[in-house]
Amino acid sequence: MVLLAVRWYLRYGLSYRDVEELLAERGIDVDHVTVYRWGQRFTPLVIDAARPCRHGVGDRWFVDETYVKVAGVWRYVYRAVDQHGQVIEVSVSKRRNVAAATKFFEAMLAGRDRPREVTTDLAAPLLRVVDDLLAEVLHDTTRYGNNPIECDHGRLKARLRPMRGLRTDRTASVVIRGHAFIQNLRRGHDELGVEARPEHRRVAAAFDELSATI
Question: Of all residues in the chain, what percent are helix, strand and coil, respectively (each to 5)?
């Protein structure tokens, strides 16, 4: 029941109160605050449990930052996808500077092969970090070159829209990472739920598999 609530929240454009209502229709009396706590507690566990099943990322990375409000204050969200649409990494930062961009790239590079090509916009921190950490790769900064990640930002924004705001940086990080995890599941970038039929049952089947490991 707990993972069902977490899956509904991450997969669909629902608020915590929406999930509370759906559970109530099934005879399960749970407060929306409890649903929030389940999401914060179990989303990181599900992501960690699925990590060994994740596909390797491609060799072309598209990197950009977008913005979300946390407790009424703008935060920067660094995100990256590969040429196959797999979300490589996400990170919520208070600042948009070289230190934040460096931390994000170091997280992406940890345990992964270095890319053949990186595409960014002309933001100064990204230019500096790619030059420092990935000087040997092709760095594309052409106009419209970053359209794949910019379009992908829209899917994140659409998921956040039904929510009544993000109150803490940790909440924002968990929700945004959870959204990326669900995106990768739905796009087939994990060896989870691969035998599910029909195919739209894949996310549910993946959570059934992961429940045994949590």
Answer: 50, 15, 30
Of 60, 65, 84, 64, nearest in space to 134 by CA: 60
* Max Cα distance, the chain (Å): 58
Give the rounded distance of the alpha carbon of 178 from its chain centre. 5
Phi then psi for residue 69, to 5 deg, are -100, 130
The domains found in the chain, sorted by start residue, are 2-54+190-211 (no CATH), 60-156 (3.30.420.10)
Q: What is the pTM of this model?
A: 0.92
Please write the tens of the pLDDT for every residue from 41-98.
999 999 999 999 999 999 999 999 999 999 999 999 999 999 999 999 999 999 999 9
Strand locations in 96-190 (E) = 117-119, 138-140
